[in-house]
Amino acid sequence: MNKLYTKLELLYSRITGNVAFYPSLIAFMGLALGFLMSYAEQQGISKYLIDTVPALVINDADTARTLLSTFIGGIFSLMVFSFSMVMLILNQASSNYSPRILPGLIANKRHQVVLGFYIAVIIYCIIILLSIEPEQSKTQLPGFAVLIGIVLSIHVLAAFIYFIHSISQAIQINNIIDRIYNVSRHRIQQLIDTESDPKGVAVFNDSDSWQSYTTKFSGHLNDIALDSLVDFCNEHSCKVSLLVPKGSFVLDSTKIVSVNKDLDEEAIEALRSCFGFSRSEIVKNNYILGFKQLTEIAVKAMSPGINDPGTAITCLDYLTELFVLRMQKRDNSFVTDKDGNALVSLRTINFEEVLYFIFASLRQYCKEDFIMLHKMLQSLRYLSTSDALKDEYTEDIINQVQLIIDDANQFIKNESDLAILNKVASEVQAS
């Protein structure tokens, strides 16, 4: 039963995260509204309205068919135009910024709702158009349903205007960076808020000798059914330690989890069912991807083809804020039972790894640019003086400062520039 519940939980997560989920749901609502109005017309709603409020009813069959046919063709044209424009914008974003940001733009729920509304109105108009017969009398004509179609079509025009405004805002680099930052910040804050002081964590210090189990799938580990893992641990009286971080790409037959006892085949399958894999990365599930995306945008901005140091500096400002927030999070995470006992140890990417790989990418592509090297040192100086700084992170920051100075000494030839960089570096090391 737990295995079935876990599969349903992971299936629900995948379905609701699919780009087609909201358009399909709204399109189904349009289908349901069409049949509902057809039923209402059979019950005589138009006849009642002709007798009470005749101005609300379309009482000519040719006019009704012409209107509905025009709406269907017009909305099809708007939909094709809208999403042809989306494809062009996505291509531009991929070329100018980073291909990694495309899933976030495509998964924009507001754009999905607009697409779903287009489809829903088309389906509704088709159903009502099919219900109009050539020889129908005024009282049999679905006049009120046609009026609803007119109202919905007017709203389609409003949705189209909103869509044009929204997509033009979404593609602006400042808004892209801000969205990535906000999603990452929200995810880190969630993890910080849920941290506690669990009991019995010492047992995980010996997890290297535990029995390891592999996965039968490959892809990004985006979904972990933590409640099901806790139930699994309680049911089998065991402890579980994850060997790969959430969001990492896992190859088939890779060891992803270790358990402090041997399990039978049925238990192993139940354990594997707690993990969900997909072929795409999702920032809201993995804040590290937010760091990567901001870094890649900064690196792309510094390329000779783009040459946009302002964007790179903005990305570094946002990265600095995320690093300050990341310093408040513990490097070890555990999932506990209701009594606070640690049952599951989550593999996390520690602060040193995040700091090193982000600044390594920036150093590689910005090592000849004085402005970016100076900005990177200023960022590290801010981290070194932050109230969130922990003692164990001080050495990591100083190591990055030294690496930047080493690159500067090798690639910056101007003595005045080197003097400024060394001054900032000495301030960081002194703090």
From TrEMBL:
Q: Which organism is it from?
A: Dokdonia donghaensis DSW-1
Record flagged with keyword Electron transport: no
- Could you list the residue ranges that cross the membrane? 20-40, 71-93, 113-132, 144-164
Name the keywords, alphabetized.
Answer: Membrane, Transmembrane, Transmembrane helix
Per its record, how is this protein called by name? DUF2254 domain-containing protein
Q: Does the keyword field hold Hydrolase?
A: no
Q: Which InterPro entries match?
A: DUF2254_membrane
